[in-house]
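Thread amino acids onto this structure.
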């Protein structure tokens, strides 16, 4: 059985041609699957009966199964998807404004409605950022294209049913579990489908990949599928960043910033978003803010401060409100656009960095860490 959610449009076209079909059928099938949310070939009524029968026999539209579905008091909704043998990944829907009242595209900066879906790319994560609950759990495997796009496919279907209008998801952020650029091919194929006018038709500006800074993959993304880019900075110097974002030892700050500037030559926006999680007493002093202002001065950017979301045994604390305010003011006085991310859905553990899903670690890292701690 071929899962058709694994294909972008050129791949679906090739597959249908290999089955003896005309290339234009691919757009019809794509439209049914992704725009109508139809998973049953028998219902795709404008396809020739012979094609429908062929599809029923050889293909399927299969998103991962839902294990849990929770809605927060603030409207945030989280799904836990079953991705096999004890594993689960999470997807979060974050609505702002009222659907149906005002076109989200009319004014880019103040949409009256925005529905953001935060999508996972891996089961766990191998990069071991110390403040991240996904990173603490170890790594199991990459998600397939069908498992990545299946999160969007399922969410759109469910949200339409729940009355969120014809276009419930206006923005996608690859900020769920996993490092998207460490699962490059599958992630970019899923991005193709998000952007395709015959599928979800999202603009490049409304699809954001967040990376902890895998430099060669940032260059590849710029060539292959330049969507909006967010980079998890979290520290203003290499010594501190080595400790909290260990991939920094491989791709240190100056290399990372140079890659950001190269990316901007291809990007759909004229800035990079730098994410900076505020860890009490670790990276949140006025000296850190001044150092950060100096560090990024040659890289067109916006700064997004993320309040740390605690999880059990994280060993970190949330920055105090006054520390966050002072930090932000120093950056603003230096001329930067700074936003502080609102924490949403924390009553259902759906806030940034709280996505734990269910990861059966295959790297043995969790064990090693326990031994290290015990020693
Ligand atoms: N792997 C990618 C994308 C997933 S994480 C990356 O690291 O960028 C999305 C964002 O949430 C990242 O900026 C990440 O550093 C941040 N994050 C991780 N743990 C967090 C926590 N406990 N509280 C707040 N933000 C966190
Ligand atoms: Fe992985 Fe991102 Fe978490 Fe780091 S912050 S461990 S890269 S998911």
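Threaded sequence (375 positions):
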């Amino acid at each position: 059985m071929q899962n058709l959610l694994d294909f972008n449009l050129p791949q679906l076209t090739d597959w249908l041609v290999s089955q003896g079909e005309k290339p234009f059928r691919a757009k019809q099938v794509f439209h049914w699957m992704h725009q109508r949310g139809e998973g049953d070939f028998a219902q795709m009524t404008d396809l020739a009966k012979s094609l429908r029968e062929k599809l029923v026999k050889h293909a399927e539209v299969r998103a991962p199964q839902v294990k849990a579905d929770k809605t927060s008091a603030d409207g945030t909704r989280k799904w836990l998807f079953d991705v096999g043998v004890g594993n689960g990944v999470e997807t979060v829907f974050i609505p702002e404004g009222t659907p149906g009242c005002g076109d989200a595209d009319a004014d880019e900066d103040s949409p009256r409605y925005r529905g953001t879906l935060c999508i996972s790319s891996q089961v766990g994560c191998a990069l071991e950022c110390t403040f991240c609950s996904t990173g603490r759990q170890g790594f199991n495997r990459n998600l397939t294209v069908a498992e990545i796009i299946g999160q969007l496919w399922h969410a759109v279907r469910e949200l339409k049913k729940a009355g969120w209008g014809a276009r419930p998801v206006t923005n996608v952020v690859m900020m769920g579990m996993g490092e998207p650029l460490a699962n490059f091919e599958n992630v970019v194929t899923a991005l193709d489908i998000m952007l395709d006018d015959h599928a979800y038709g999202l603009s490049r500006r409304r699809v954001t990949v967040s990376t902890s800074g895998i430099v060669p993959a940032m260059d590849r993304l710029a060539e292959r599928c330049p969507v909006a880019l967010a980079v998890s900075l979290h520290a203003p110097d290499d010594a501190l960043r080595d400790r909290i974002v260990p991939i920094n030892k491989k791709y240190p700050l100056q290399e990372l910033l140079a890659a950001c500037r190269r990316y901007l030559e291809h990007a759909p926006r004229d800035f990079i978003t730098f994410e900076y999680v505020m860890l009490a007493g670790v990276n949140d002093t006025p000296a850190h803010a001044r150092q950060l202002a100096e560090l990024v001065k040659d890289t067109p950017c916006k700064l997004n401060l993320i309040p740390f979301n605690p999880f059990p045994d994280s060993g970190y604390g949330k920055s105090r409100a006054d520390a966050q305010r002072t930090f932000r003011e120093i950056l603003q006085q230096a001329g930067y656009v700074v936003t502080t991310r609102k924490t949403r859905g924390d009553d259902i553990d759906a806030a940034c960095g709280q996505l734990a899903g269910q990861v059966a670690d295959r790297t043995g890292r969790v064990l090693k860490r326990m031994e290290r701690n015990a020693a």
